[in-house]
Design a protein that fits this description.
The protein has 15 helices and 2 strands. The protein is mainly alpha-helical and about 325 residues long. The chain has a domain at about 50-165 and about 175-285. A two-stranded antiparallel ribbon has the order 1-2.
Length: about 325
């Protein structure tokens, strides 16, 4: 077992990283400052911006799931919108039928998406690299068309979609509806983020990292690569499914055209900009997805929004080629010198 432990430890450690005990006070301070800022935000922003910040959290959760699959386990996926849509429609159908409250639909959405992702991951185990990306890309392209199929119309309502009621503020809390939804989403995202961090720091998480870095050596050390890869696909899909369920609750509407290939690409871009393999960077990726298109539209004339968006993306890639995580490491090194 010593060989497996050494391989896992090597996969978890990063070159030049300080010992975990030395970094602990800084991590605690960073988490405290981030949580404090996230709690204060809905009290100082207007309703629409609070809605946008809620969407940032929703997309960040989907990016966390994708990062577990790609950044941690090394499997490329361009089809996460399918699992996102699965969770969204599961929540919408349960709420529309009046079967349960919106909060209770999220575990169901996550389980359904997990099963879907795990089953999809089994045949996808034969594919690697760009071939896996192409297979998931095909899944992404097919998702809106599948949701529009006539046999599914009684449940999905076809192109008309499903409208949902806005959640009420419970327990007489002194919050408006937008603020309550924000805090509800924030609580879900924070819990799942810490669970993901715990997974990455666990023995199973180190096995996922070992498979990413050297699958041949990992197999030689007795790690069940096929089981871990399929499970990683399932867990990643679970996160995307819960994010989709939250999206349905926040937007109060789902339709096939809401889950196009562009959503999958946005998740992938957000993951890369946040930092491949660095889960907290998903918050930055979610903010990019929500705010950069709007900023691009504001600073560019009509018809040039795409150019402005592309320029913003290129500038960020040049400034932070390794995403936000790489940018933070660069600043740390300069201050250390």
């Amino acid at each position: 077992m010593t060989g497996i432990d050494n391989l896992m430890d090597k996969a978890l450690d990063k070159p030049g990283a300080a010992p975990s005990r030395a970094r602990r006070p800084y991590r605690q301070a960073w988490w405290a400052a981030t949580l404090a800022a996230l709690v204060i935000l809905p009290f100082v922003l207007d309703g629409y911006v609070v809605f946008q910040m809620t969407l940032v959290l929703v997309y960040a959760l989907a990016i966390i799931g994708l990062n577990l699959l790609t950044g941690i386990n090394g499997q490329f996926s361009l089809g996460h919108v399918a699992f996102f849509a699965t969770g969204a429609y599961t929540t919408a159908l349960l709420m529309d039928a009046g079967l349960m409250g919106y909060a209770w639909t999220l575990p169901i959405a996550g389980i359904v998406a997990f099963v879907f992702g795990f089953l999809f991951g089994l045949p996808a185990l034969r594919l690697e690299g760009i071939y896996l990306a192409l297979a998931t890309f095909a899944l992404s392209v097919a998702t809106p068309q599948v949701l529009k199929l006539t046999p599914l119309t009684p449940w999905t309502h076809g192109v008309n979609g499903i409208s949902l009621p806005k959640p009420e503020v419970p327990w007489g809390l002194p919050l408006d509806q937008d603020q309550w939804i924000y805090f509800f989403v924030l609580a879900v995202v924070m819990v799942l983020l810490f669970l993901a961090l715990a997974l990455v720091g666990s023995r199973s998480g180190r096995a996922l990292l070992a498979i990413r870095d050297n699958p041949i050596a990992a197999r030689a050390m007795g790690i069940n690569i096929w089981l871990y890869k399929a499970t990683a696909f399932g867990i990643s899909s679970l996160y995307a499914g819960i994010a989709g369920g939250l999206s349905a609750i926040v937007v109060q509407y789902v339709s096939p055209d809401s889950f196009t290939m562009n959503v999958s690409i946005a998740f992938f871009v957000g993951m890369v900009l946040g930092g491949l393999g660095w889960l907290p960077g998903a918050l930055f990726g979610g903010a990019f997805i929500v705010f950069i298109p709007q900023i691009s539209a504001d600073i560019a004339d009509k018809g040039f929004e795409g150019i402005a968006y592309g320029l913003c993306l290129v500038v960020l890639v040049f400034v932070m080629p390794s995403g936000l995580a790489g940018g933070i490491d660069l600043v740390k090194r300069k201050f250390a010198r």
